[in-house]
Design a protein that fits this description.
The structure holds 2 protein chains of 2 kinds.
Chain A: E1 9-18, E2 23-30, H1 33-38, E3 46-51, E4 55-60, E5 71-76, H2 80-85, E6 93-100, E7 113-119, H3 123-135, E8 143-149, H4 158-163, H5 165-170, E9 173-179, E10 188-189, E11 206-211, H6 214-226, E12 234-237, E13 253-256, E14 259-262, H7 263-266, E15 269-271, H8 272-277
Parallel strand pairs in A: 7-8, 7-11, 8-9, 9-10, 11-12
Antiparallel strand pairs in A: 1-2, 1-6, 2-5, 3-4, 3-6, 12-15, 13-14
Chain B: E1 2-7, H1 11-18, E2 23-29, E3 35-39, E4 65-72, E5 77-80, E6 88-93, H2 95-108, H3 115-123, E7 124-129, H4 139-142, E8 153-158, E9 161-166, H5 169-177, H6 187-202, H7 213-219, H8 224-232, H9 238-242, E10 249-255, E11 261-268, E12 278-279, E13 283-284, H10 289-300, E14 303-304, E15 309-310, H11 317-320, H12 328-336
Parallel strand pairs in B: 2-6, 6-7, 7-8
Antiparallel strand pairs in B: 1-9, 2-3, 4-5, 4-11, 8-9, 10-11, 12-13, 14-15
Classes of the chains: A alpha/beta, B alpha+beta.
Chain lengths: ~280, ~375
């Protein structure tokens, strides 16, 4: 790659899926086939996606690193750049650099159970972990994926997860999908922490990944620890405003004088004890 | 280290010769009160006894506004634009500013070296000069009052000239090429140097230990100082612009009128502006002026692991140039309990300091 860390690589949109009213899933492939085949990442890492002439946004990768040749980004239409992204059609070209961030320490998790707790758009980065675990099923013990959203129509990857539910059940993978506000919803209702008790994971040897709106974390942590999940095995992935992705532009800085962090470089994945000793990480 | 002496009568000849190495930038008086690093033609205009420049020397390496790429929408292409940087000389940096550049290096020349910064850093020749602190200086408390490296030459003022420390091969070359201008250092010069350093050490306003500051800042996050002082703050971002180690930047894509081509630029950003922590969807991670005010204090006092220093070098610019008259040093000393001895301060209610973790620990 170039010696300029801000240099961009061309990537083509291969497919676009509508997930919800505001979220779409985009499938990209680098135009340079050598990069396309060799480019890899860790679950939890993100890329900087540029729409020529519009701007650059950090987006976490939501596909599995085991499936080469393409990568997927789940993007919510929320700002100036993402509105333009939502107009992309298959065949359009965008520019990408990355991957950035530390990612989840998936190699350290070998042999452990895996509990994934996602709320809202938090499903996107954790889907990467989930798919990685499914692709490397033998590396992990039992797996539970708790996927929640406010309303049924906002549940990301609902159909995808429902489709594999029965198959997954046979493989000791439990999928729990619930909504918190939707009164009309036919399925499960409740906040993510309510379903931790139903997880098939052994608290003593489970890696827990949590991602969702900041308000959620406190209750989830409390429930997890009360059920005996080990704090050192709890991980979250966070978001901030980012312009560079490599710890220079300063927008994602957080912390205090003894624990100063750049989310893009030191994160976006943080352990539970990072959060306890770095005020401001979650709020 | 190599030491030579530059007699006073040769200083202007020496400065004139520096122009052979590239454009010469040096501190000049730009208004009644202010100094700044400017390109100098007439070396007689250079100020040797300035207190601090309004703009820190980072502006030569990390440009206030810089073109990064030229793009074309139709071709979906971003072409890197790195101009051909000519070598240049920055004369007259104080020790704090040299340390500030070293701090910038730890960020910009880490495992992802910033190319735009790097090309300028490689071409810039740094010549330091000794200084006499004024009441705003506190580099002694930051341990940045004497530069060990990070310069090509460093001039220490003597009554009849300068004691010159040579820091790099380029420094040796500059000395060797004009060796006729230099003399050997004498015993008298060493005495004069010692005298100067002693006088300098004594003229700092504060002589105290700030070792616990980093921890006290964390413990005193509910101190009434934060509310009082952030209320005074105009959130103008002057402190960031004048800070020699502030390095946040904003990136923008600016299209041309033809609707196809344009440039991606970056420009200095300020953490005191509301937009700094704002993300799409209108969520702001630092929504209040207080949180942004505090952010700067915590950032500047955090620990740079590579150098073992704080990010603040004690140059005093943020206090000197603050239009609201907020004193960084005074506020930090308040936190340290050095301004006002009452401890604990009078508080209306005890606010939890978050020592207890989530979950279990609460019971």
């Amino acid at each position: 790659m170039s010696d300029n860390p801000y240099a961009l690589e061309k990537a083509k949109v291969l497919r676009v899926y509508d997930l919800t009213e505001t979220e779409k899933l985009f499938l990209f492939r680098f135009e340079n086939s050598e990069i396309a085949e060799n480019w890899t990442f860790k679950p939890g890492q993100f890329v900087q996606l540029t729409i020529p002439g519009v701007g650059e946004v950090p987006i976490s990768i939501c596909s599995s690193p085991m499936r080469k040749g393409f990568f997927e980004l789940c993007i919510r239409r929320i700002g100036r750049v993402t509105t333009v992204i939502h107009r992309l059609k298959p065949g359009d070209t965008v520019l990408v650099r990355g991957p950035y961030g530390n990612g989840f320490p998936v190699d350290e998790w070998e042999g452990m159970d895996l509990l994934i707790i996602a709320a809202g758009l938090g499903t996107a980065p954790l889907r990467s972990v989930f798919l990685y675990a499914m692709d490397n099923r033998w590396k992990f013990g039992n797996i539970t994926f708790i996927n929640t959203a406010r309303y049924g129509k906002e549940l990301l990857f609902y159909k995808e997860l429902e489709a594999i539910r029965d198959l997954a059940e046979a493989e000791n993978v439990k999928i729990i999908q619930s909504v918190t506000r939707d009164k009309e919803w036919k399925g499960l209702k409740g906040r993510p922490q309510q379903f931790i008790v139903e997880a098939n994971t052994n608290p003593k040897k489970t890696a827990v990944t949590v991602c969702g709106p900041p308000r959620m974390y406190r209750d989830v942590f409390e429930t997890l620890i009360n059920y005996g999940y080990r704090p050192e095995n709890i991980y979250v992935t966070l978001e901030r405003r980012m312009k560079c992705g490599i710890g220079k532009c300063g927008h994602c800085n957080v912390g205090t004088s003894t624990s100063w962090k750049y989310i893009c470089k030191d994160g976006p994945v943080f352990g539970y004890f990072d959060i306890v000793s770095t005020p401001g990480l979650l709020d | 280290m190599r030491y030579v002496k530059l007699p006073k009568e040769n200083i202007y000849d020496f400065l004139e010769r520096l122009k052979d190495y590239g454009k010469l930038y040096a501190p000049v008086k730009i208004s009644e009160k202010f100094y700044d690093f400017r390109e100098v033609d007439d070396v007689k205009k250079i100020e040797f006894h300035y207190n601090r420049t309004i703009m820190p020397p980072k502006k030569f390496f990390f440009l206030p506004r810089e073109k990064m790429f030229e793009f074309s929408i139709s071709k979906a292409e971003y072409k890197e634009t790195i101009e051909n940087v000519e070598p240049f000389v920055v004369f007259g940096l104080h020790a704090c500013d040299i340390f500030a550049l070293k701090i910038m290096d730890t960020i910009y020349l880490d495992e992802f070296p910033d190319k735009y910064y790097k090309v300028r850093r490689e071409k810039g020749i740094i010549i330091g000069i000794s200084c006499m602190p004024d009441e705003y200086c506190f580099c002694n408390l930051r341990e940045t009052d004497f530069a060990d490296d990070g310069f090509d030459l460093f001039l220490h003022e003597l009554p009849d000239g300068y004691l010159v420390r040579v820091g790099t091969p380029i420094g040796h070359r500059i000395v060797d090429k004009s060796i006729k201008l230099f003399e050997e250092v004498t015993s008298q010069d060493i005495c004069d140097f010692r005298e100067f350093e002693k006088k300098r050490e004594e003229s700092f306003k504060y002589h105290e230990d700030w070792g616990s500051l980093r921890y006290l800042l964390e413990l005193e996050m509910e101190h009434p100082m934060w509310d009082e002082q952030s209320e005074l703050c105009l959130a103008c971002g002057n402190c960031n612009t004048t800070c020699p180690t502030c390095r946040c930047y904003e990136v923008q894509d600016i299209p041309n009128l033809d609707g196809d081509t344009g440039v991606r630029i970056r420009r200095w950003d300020s953490c005191q502006l509301r937009s700094h922590g704002l993300v799409a969807g209108n969520h702001n991670f630092r929504p209040t002026k207080r949180s942004r005010f505090m952010n700067r204090y915590l950032c500047k006092n955090s620990y740079n692991e590579k150098l073992g220093l704080s990010y603040c070098v004690g140059c005093g610019r943020c206090t000197y140039f603050c239009p609201a008259g907020i004193s960084f040093v005074k506020n930090l000393r308040t936190i340290m309990g050095l301004e006002d001895k009452s401890c604990p301060p009078e508080i209306s209610e005890e606010i939890p300091k978050r020592g207890f973790a989530y979950g279990g620990a609460k019971q």
